[in-house]
Design brief:
Layout (H helix, E strand, L loop, with lengths): L19 E5 L6 H8 L11 E2 L2 E2 L5 H11 E4 L11 H9 L8 H7 L15 H13 L5 E5 L7 H18 L2 E6 L10 E6 L2 E7 L12
Helix pairs in contact: 3-4, 3-5, 4-5, 5-6
Length: 218
């Protein structure tokens, strides 16, 4: 008898540039493992992962570091801002890692916090810190914006504003946004919903008429 545990099993899909995708599943479904593979933080034991014709699965460790730095923007449930840097400096630090960054001040303005440029994280609310975290991810001008439970630490009103921001970022900068969540309400705003359970894809649905983020019922 095999004791092998498969975190993901026969998972296969394509995502087009500019799509707004929600990967939905309960705790332990395999969605975080999937996000880690998409972000180049974990490797799959078999299969292939291709981004813009590059076979990420075969990258060396140094190539994976370069891939994460240049092509991936991460937004986590907890903000992980540098406490000794101002809001603008947190964004500028991320911009310095990119060969083709967006303008830090413009991105800060796009998340509505240009007046908070010189404030430190401890001087910002949870919602404001998450906005800075999103700006930090976007300023790198990444291929993929990967969001792991981005509203999980926020109240429903603030969470709705963060979803609205992610949606507008996707449209304004034509970014591919992938949100991993257990919250089925969030799936209502996506153009595509991939449901996972026990490491398998249960369904992969295109939503022709997603609702506006501000209309999400929590």
């Amino acid at each position: 008898m095999s004791n092998e545990v498969k975190a993901l099993d026969d998972v296969s899909f394509d995502i087009e540039e500019g799509q707004f995708v929600v990967i939905l599943g309960a705790s332990g479904a395999g969605k975080s493992t999937l996000l880690n593979i998409l972000g180049g933080m974990d490797r799959s034991t078999s299969g292939d992962y291709i981004v813009n014709e590059s076979h990420v699965s075969s990258f060396s460790e140094n190539e994976l570091v370069f891939f994460r730095r240049k092509q991936i923007g991460f937004v986590f449930q907890f903000y992980n801002l540098m406490p000794n840097l101002s809001a603008l400096e947190n964004i500028e630090l991320a911009a310095s890692l990119s060969d083709d960054p967006l303008d830090s001040k413009e991105v800060l303005a796009s998340v509505g916090l240009e007046k908070r440029a010189n404030n430190f994280p401890s001087q910002l609310s949870g919602g404001e810190q998450q906005r800075i975290a999103i700006a930090r991810a976007v300023v790198k001008n990444p291929t993929l914006l990967l969001c792991d439970e981005p509203t999980g630490a926020l109240d429903s009103k603030t969470g709705a504003s963060i979803l609205s921001l992610l949606y507008s970022v996707s449209k304004e900068y034509h970014k591919t946004v992938i949100i991993v969540t257990h919250n089925s309400s969030i799936a209502q705003i996506a153009s595509r919903v991939i449901r996972v359970s026990d490491g398998k894809i249960l369904s992969d649905t295109i939503q022709e008429n997603p609702i506006a983020p501000e209309d999400v019922q929590w």
